[in-house]
Write a structure and sequence with these properties.
This protein is α/β, with parallel strands linked by helices. About 25% of the residues lie in helices and about 25% in strands. It has eight helices and 13 strands.
């Protein structure tokens, strides 16, 4: 999760000059190497100056050539948005930069966890990216199972989230997904096993050729399929494919910021008895009252309370 504010990556460095290099976009990062797409479409394998931060897919950079296929990143330009997550040591690690849409892929098999779905949605809200929920493998649902799942997910549609059902076998919903991705820079996220790879393959018919070409040019080999990678979609828009995860956690933020990640809370903010209400157990809480009256999902409020607790824990 990232801040709503633009993120100046090298805050202590002077603004980059045109003489620092030519513009490029980071397609992927692995180890000490970034794949940078030049303005003419060439893919260059670049190292990064030690004084600069680690780059991620979607970063805009300046770079200088050191050979026909190699170069050095000399500046990381200001990020409009950045999706981040804490690593195992609770250090903030960026996942993708300069995105305006987060596509959360879930599936009925393996069963998804609502808490993680909400965490992804909160992350999108807090960086100002548009969230989209995609239920993949819809061909595995019979009529009754799909109806029950649609009913459970109605809470998200009621608060304004786009909800798509897709299948690469039956092609259910793929046209709608194509339309949703047009004109956006999106990142595809979700648990391992939800079928993100098959979706990417359907969106990018030349994927195998593209991956093979990148491997040959960059020398990254198999790693090009196991790191986040930015692709240009044939019908317009860019898509960053991030590797599947077991879980997704948020970077710690104060409750006063976290509450803005739940869009259905917003009409009630400022109406609580106490100005510093955390909406957990305080008396006179407008959010808690709205949940009791059925205006807010109790499950969503419960997930919010769990997040507040986890972020205040030592």
């Amino acid at each position: 999760m990232g801040s709503r504010r633009k993120s100046a990556i090298a805050a202590n460095s002077p603004p980059p000059k045109a003489t620092d290099g030519q513009p490029g976009q980071v397609l992927a990062h692995h180890g000490q190497t970034s794949l940078v797409e030049a303005e003419n479409g060439d893919i260059v394998r670049c190292s990064t100056r030690r004084s600069l931060p680690r780059t991620v897919s979607g970063d805009r950079v300046l770079w200088q050539a050191s050979s026909p296929r190699e170069g050095v990143i000399t500046a990381v330009l200001e990020r409009d948005t950045v999706l981040s997550r804490p690593d195992q040591n609770n250090r903030v690690r960026p996942v993708a930069a300069n995105i305006d849409q987060i596509v959360v892929v879930i599936a009925s098999k393996p069963s998804f966890e609502y808490g993680m779905l909400d965490r992804y949605l909160v992350a999108a809200e807090l960086i100002g990216a548009q969230p989209v929920i995609v239920v993949n493998k819809s061909d595995m649902l019979d009529h009754d199972s799909r109806s029950k799942l649609e009913e459970r997910l109605q809470v998200y549609q009621r608060i304004g989230y786009a909800l798509l059902f897709t299948s690469t076998r039956s092609t259910d919903g793929l046209r709608d997904l194509h339309q949703q991705l047009k004109t956006h820079t999106s990142v595809l996220v979700g648990q391992s096993g939800v079928g993100k790879s098959s979706l990417i393959q359907s969106l990018l018919p030349e994927l195998d050729i593209r991956t093979g070409s990148l491997s040959q040019v960059t020398g990254l080999g198999r790693h090009t399929t196991t790191v986040a990678m930015l692709y240009h979609l044939p019908d317009g828009g860019d898509l960053i494919d991030s590797p599947g995860v077991r879980d997704f956690n948020l970077v710690k933020v104060p409750a006063a910021e976290l509450e803005h990640g739940f869009r259905e809370f917003r009409p009630y903010l400022g109406q609580c008895r106490f100005h510093n209400c955390r909406h957990v157990s305080e008396p006179g809480c407008a959010i808690q009252t709205a949940a009791r009256e059925g205006q807010i999902s109790e499950r969503r409020l419960e997930n919010y309370c769990k997040l507040v607790s986890s972020m205040t824990a030592p």
